[in-house]
Amino acid sequence: MESCFGVKEKLSIFTSRCVSETRVSFGAAAASVESTIASECLPAVDVYETDETIEVVVDLPGVDPAAVRIVAKGDSLLVAGDKSPRRARGESSFHLVERGYGRFARVVRLGRACDTARARARLVGGELQISLPKIADRRGRPLTIAIT
Q1: Segments making up each domain of the chain, as ranges
Q2: CA spacing 20 to 30 A to 63: which of 50, 79, 84, 140?
Q3: Taking the mean position of all CA atoms in its chain, how far away is CA 45?
Q4: 121-128: long-range contacts at Cβ-Cβ below 8 A with a sequence spacing of 24 or more?
Q5: Fold of 4-87+100-133
C-alpha cells in the first residue's frame, strides 16, 4: 500500500505537468484556468474517431452551456467552465452533498489535424458533444512537382 505522502507527491507532479501542458498548448487562453487547476474537478471524457471526424464527449451534468468555454489550438482542445452549486429550496437544507461543483478544465489531445473552423458542439442531457471534422493527412502521398 502506498503512503499518503507518495500519492500526494505524485498528484503534485501530475498537476504541475497539467499546468505546464495547458500553458504550452493554449498560452494566454490558459491564464484564467491554470491558477486553479489543482482544485478543479476533471470531468470524464471519451474521444473517438469516425471516418470523417474526431468526436469528443465530456460529462457535464447540470452545467449551463453559457458557463462552458471550448478553445482549440494545434492538436489540442481545452474544455473549461464553471458548474454552479445547487441551492436548497425554500426553508430546506441539505443533509448530504456528493455532487461536485466549481471550476473544471480538461485538455484533450486530438492526435491529428482537424478543421476547427467547422467544429460543432452541443450540450445535451449532461453531455458536451464536440465534433471536429478531420483534415486529410497529406504526408506520405506522392506529390508530383513540375520542373519549370
Answers
A1: 4-87+100-133
A2: 50
A3: 8
A4: 121/70, 123/60, 123/63, 123/65, 123/68, 126/59, 126/60, 126/61, 126/62, 126/63, 127/57, 127/58, 127/59, 127/60, 128/56, 128/57, 128/58, 128/59, 128/60, 128/63, 128/68, 128/70, 128/79
A5: Immunoglobulin-like (2.60.40)
* Chain centre to alpha carbon of residue 138: 27
Q: What angle do CA 60, 64, 65 make, to 5 degrees?
A: 85
pTM over 0.70: no
- pLDDT above 60: residue 105: yes
Give one DSSP letter per residue of 91-127, joined into a string: T---S---S--EEEEEEEE-SS-B-GGG-EEEEETTE
Reported confidence tier of residue 58, pLDDT bands at 50, 70, 90: very high
- Residue 137 C-alpha cell reads as 493527412
Instruction: Report yes or no: 63 and 110 within 8 Å, Cβ to Cβ.
Output: no
C-alpha cell at 136: 486529410
Q: Kindly report the length of the chain.
A: 148
